[in-house]
Design a protein that fits this description.
A: mainly beta, five-stranded mixed beta sheet, 23 strands, B: alpha+beta, Nuclear Transport Factor 2, Chain: A, globular, disordered N terminus
Chain lengths: 289, 169
């Protein structure tokens, strides 16, 4: 018994500061990394029960006091604050221990928005990540995360951001070319990908021509493109307007094979115009050409 | 309650809390939203208020679950990994014959990140509490503790839910 007490006193003196400030009969590390193995020193004799109690995990062990208790790697794996309780028939001793996340990313929670947007939007794409270890603990130590947006032609935007409190975010411009872009977040060999569909924007302009067709005028646009040269998708509505003698006639026409066309009554002196969304096309004054 | 909070924190933004703050324990709550909040999106006061209200309710829900080893109410305020881990803890406690009561004395909450598109809010909370552990109905520990929590909440249908709930000392 004396020898045991002497041994325990020796352990106390030799133990680094982070292992002290515990109860008399239980000595545990003040902090460990999630999933690592560690020892708890106990003093005294006889049987006892060790409880390791936290909000994210509880461990119970029947132990022999006066011996080191080895907790194997993986046993205590959830980050958190733990209370260690050594309970024997005649006494209860406690110690505190903090379990920090492993400093090795294993998973990324990647929030990317939107999934579809027009080309050429400044800071139109946003991404945020949370970095987790193999035990689903949020890694709060700074990690370097690279965000990468690449379009089908191979053009890539890349940003590297350091996490704070486990989180990092970025904004990216949508590219000039329509198509399915890959949006990736990457850290320490762990990657998460999303697809962001980039669709043509509004038409850059509308050029309309008119020609007579019997009692009517045939109006037609040239193929509509956005300001990056992408074809505006079929189905986009073009509104044709004819103003004559104080009356106004409008016709909404969906694009078909890139162009919109319509026939309207031919009136000498009529004003003809076209528009799509906020984009206005050219005007034509019909003089019976 | 708001007057009390304002007295506690004159120099920071106080977010009004619609629900009683940890009514069982009457814990004091200090809330701070730093001017340089991480993320491009502006955090509206109503959003912050709702998230913190739901977070504090999550604490009550967690406390009730670990006090009775009943998990049926946890999913109202927790989701994902945080919910899984709390469910496991309640099972482990029940198997070990333990129950735990967290008597919270104070929360010191700081909102640190609001992700683009409003898909998540991250906060830190330094909590002072007493941890009372009973083994088969007999109290075996009553320990004052102070922990810093990192918490991530995400919006659900009716409220913000806690997805990451992690403490350090």
């Amino acid at each position: 018994m004396k020898l045991r007490l002497l041994w325990f006193a020796g352990v106390l003196l030799a133990a680094p500061a982070h292992m002290r400030a515990q109860s008399d009969r239980i000595q545990a590390p003040a902090s460990i990394e999630a999933g690592s193995g560690f020892s708890i020193h106990t003093a005294g004799s006889g049987k006892a029960t060790l409880f390791i109690v936290g909000q994210n995990q509880v461990v119970k062990r029947e132990v022999q006091m006066g011996q080191d208790i080895w907790l194997a790697p993986g046993v205590v794996h959830n980050a958190g604050a733990y209370l260690l309780i050594l309970k024997s028939n005649d006494s209860t001793d406690t110690a505190e221990m903090s379990v920090s996340p492993e400093n090795k990313p294993s998973d990324l929670s990647f929030l990317a928005r939107p999934s579809r947007l027009p080309v050429g939007i400044h800071d139109g794409i946003t991404g945020a990540v949370y970095v987790f270890d193999a035990y689903n603990n949020l890694i709060t130590a700074p990690q370097s995360v690279t965000f990468e947006l690449s379009n089908p032609a191979g053009v890539t935007q890349s940003r590297t951001v350091t996490t704070r409190n486990g989180a990092a975010q970025t904004e990216m411009d949508s590219t000039q070319q329509q198509g399915a872009d890959k949006f990736a977040a990457r850290t320490a060999g762990v990657e998460s990908k999303r697809v962001v569909a980039q669709v043509p924007g509004d038409p850059c302009g509308i050029k309309m021509s008119a020609k007579p067709s019997g009692e009517e005028i045939e109006l037609a646009t040239e193929p509509l493109r956005d300001c990056s040269g992408n074809a505006v998708p079929d189905g986009t509505i073009v509104t044709f307007t004819e103003t004559y003698g104080g009356d106004e006639t409008t016709v909404d026409v969906p694009l078909k094979r890139g162009i919109a066309q319509v026939s309207m009554p031919a009136h000498n002196g009529a004003m003809l115009s076209s528009a799509s969304g906020v984009v206005l096309g050219n005007q034509i004054r019909w003089e019976g050409q | 309650m708001l007057k009390l909070l304002k007295r506690l924190v004159p120099a920071v933004l106080i977010v009004a809390i619609a629900a009683p703050v940890d009514a069982a324990a009457q814990a004091s709550v200090r809330i701070e939203t730093p001017a340089g909040l991480e993320g491009p999106r502006t955090l509206q006061e109503q959003t912050a208020s709702a998230a913190i209200r739901d977070y504090l309710q999550a604490w009550r829900s967690m406390n009730a679950a670990l006090e009775q080893n009943r998990t049926d109410q946890l999913s109202t305020y927790f989701a994902g990994t945080a919910l899984d881990k709390l469910n496991e803890t309640a099972e482990e406690q029940a198997s070990a014959g333990l129950r735990t009561h967290y008597q919270v004395n104070s929360h010191d909450i700081q909102i640190v990140f609001y992700s683009p598109e409003g898909l998540s809010i991250e906060l830190t909370d330094t909590v002072q509490y007493e941890m009372q552990v009973t083994d088969h109905g007999k109290q075996i520990a009553n320990k004052p503790m102070r922990s810093r929590y990192v918490v991530v909440l995400t919006p659900a249908e009716a409220r913000w839910k806690v997805r990451v709930f992690q403490a350090t000392m």
